[in-house]
Amino acid sequence: MVNMLLSRASADASSDASSMPVPMPAPSNTTEEFALVPLSVQESAPGFDMVNDLPRIRQAIAGSDELPWSALHRQFMWTLVLVMLASCMRLSTAIEYSPKVSSIKTPTILEEWDEDGHPKWLTFEIYRWKGKKAPDPTQTFRLYRNYVNPAFCPVIAVLLWLSNSGLGNFMEHDDVLLFPSFTDSFHALTGSTRNNTNMVRAWLYEVFTIVDLRECTPHSLRRTAAQWAAQCYGEEWQIRIGGRWGLSGTSFRLYIEEGASIRDDFHGRGLEDPIFKLWVWHYGVVNRRSARPRGAP
Q1: Residue 183 to residues 21, 46, 192, 234: CA-CA distances in angstroms?
Q2: Which of 173, 213, 225, 244 is 20 to 30 Å from 53 at the Cα level?
Q3: How far is it, in rounded angstroms, from Cα 92 to Cα 149?
Q4: Is 272 a domain residue?
Q5: pLDDT tens sequence across 180-205
Q6: Considering its fold, how many domains does the chain have in total?
Q7: From CA 170, how far away is CA 76, in angstroms rounded?
Q8: Is residue 190, in this structure, part of any structural domain at all?
């Protein structure tokens, strides 16, 4: 079923709004400029405006001449950005503890598939993350289709990535990663070798610089995701669990307040929030113990 689905996604790539462009020259391997950014600076990085800035980020990744990247590299980066936003994921979780392609599952009942032959959702396992204690279970996270704007759909992006990268051929291999390292040519992947987090961080800095978000860091994706969740009426407990924050965490509450302020501003002025025409946030945790506190619906 998964292999048939990947074939369909690949066939649809030419007409789908979320597909990436034709191959470009191989990228630079330089990372030294951004490799030693202090953690305190990364963690205090600002969020960005999803409605105005995410389309510009997509445009830069897809076709900016300032990024001499291969088509595969561009698709890697766009899929990474969408998955990090949808799951409120740290860069270290995506790269150092990269989910495995063997953990990706599609629905098993017909009603959870759309008429176009694509699933309404995908799930994958998050095995490790910062602050995770050994006894804690893995987190099964569900990515939902974005029907209001398919260009920003994480489900389609992941399916295209698995198909075009060839990773979808290794769904039964436990050591193949969703975001593995590239070969020297940047036109192929190693499959089971973990990427260099500093290198991927540098690539994100390049994108942020091009779209004039120079103060942003990879943590900006996580902060923006929490703001976005609150903006879409997500509950505090959903955002905390979905972002894998501990009970004693404080930063995510600030991010929630920022998102709620944006939401309330639109509501107070009687205006429709344009976020609901770009991408609607969904709570994606489906199996972690204590995912819902007592009394939660």
Answers
A1: 20, 33, 11, 40
A2: 244
A3: 28
A4: no
A5: 998 876 777 887 888 899 999 999 99
A6: 1
A7: 17
A8: yes
Sign of the alpha-carbon dihedral angle for 158, 163, 164, 170: positive
How many Cβ atoms from other residues are within 10 Å of residue 177's Cβ?
Answer: 24
Neighbours of 227 (CB within 10 A): 28
Which amino acid belongs to residue 218?
P
Q: Which domain holds residue 199?
A: 2-26+38-218
Alpha helices (runs of H) in 166-290, residue ranges in sequence order? 197-210, 218-231, 236-242, 251-268
Separation between Cα atoms, residue 108 and residue 257, nearest integer Å: 38
Asked, for residue 148, whether it belongs to a domain, the answer is yes
d(CA 229, CA 237): 11
> pLDDT over 70 for what percent of the chain?
80
Residue 172 belongs to a domain: yes
**pLDDT per position as a tens digit, 103-113:** 999 999 999 99
Q: Which residues of 36-55 are buried (b: 16+ CB within 10 A; e: fewer)?
A: ebeeeebeebebbebbebbe
3-class DSSP assignment, residue 218? helix
